[in-house]
Predict the structure of NAD-dependent epimerase/dehydratase family protein.
Amino acid sequence: MARVLVTGGSGYIAGFAIRQLVEAGWEVNTTIRSLAREAEVREWLGVDNARLRFFAADLTSDPGWADAMEGCSHVAHIASPIPPGAPRHEDELIVPAREGALRALRFAKGAGVNRFVMTSSVAAIAYGHSKDRTEFSEADWSNLDDPRTYAYPKSKTIAERAARQWVAAKGGGIEFVTVNPAAVLGPVLGRDFSPSIEAVKKLLEGAMPGVPDLGFGIVDVRDVADLHVRCLTADHVAGERFIASGPFLKLIDIAHILRERLGPEARKVPTRRMPDFLVRIVGRFIPELGQVASELGRVKISSSVHAKDRLGWEPRPVEETIVETARSLIERGIVKVS
């Protein structure tokens, strides 16, 4: 196998991608912001250390990127800024997402990389559209002019569009592909995991008296990693986008699955809907809830037919993913249920 750079090696999706790539025989380089975390990340990855090399590199500056790219024929650019809460200004997300993607592309070209797979999101597809619109495909783009399109979908849309424009103008022979996941759940490896998992964590903790009328497509982190690997190796996929999503579920659906499958461990999980007006009031004091209040009642079904038909990708049952997410949080002591 060739050598691949996986950016953001301490991240949730990247961790599972590294595991699958090493298992498949790849030599893997990965970036983290500080090598002080290398030992920790190696421990929870649990892979053949001889096949994995770490490099210090940040999305916002050039040092480290040339060394990380050296000898690589493929790149999985998974690193992207995701704050724990709502950013104070949207540029806190937009600038590093866009500049990080362009920086990785520039150094990839300089290193002679052939295939560049970038993690985008359905957030770059399904936001800012009419409420009557419920189904989306890879042909769609989020509408940045709609005031309901908040910082995160803006950052993913702007970063992906900028990357595609750069490849078209300056990419030379780089084959560029994006993976566009929905909300990523699944077992956690370490302390860095998808913000989507915070929703399951808060349900298990009984952090709110009711469940907001919010929903999203759900996909397992292991299946997202698998789709990245397929995109790295498949023939004739240059320029493609691949949505990674299972079914669309409301938070109330997830709550009921947790109650049914976990028994007493899910006793704190609320099963009543929180009225929309109350969500909006609470959102004035909790910015991360306030920024998504415009999504109340929305249904957004993002189809993965293209990934299934073109790459033979098949996600696991969503109930399995939800239960394994919860059990992982409990087993690692991230959530206390007693």
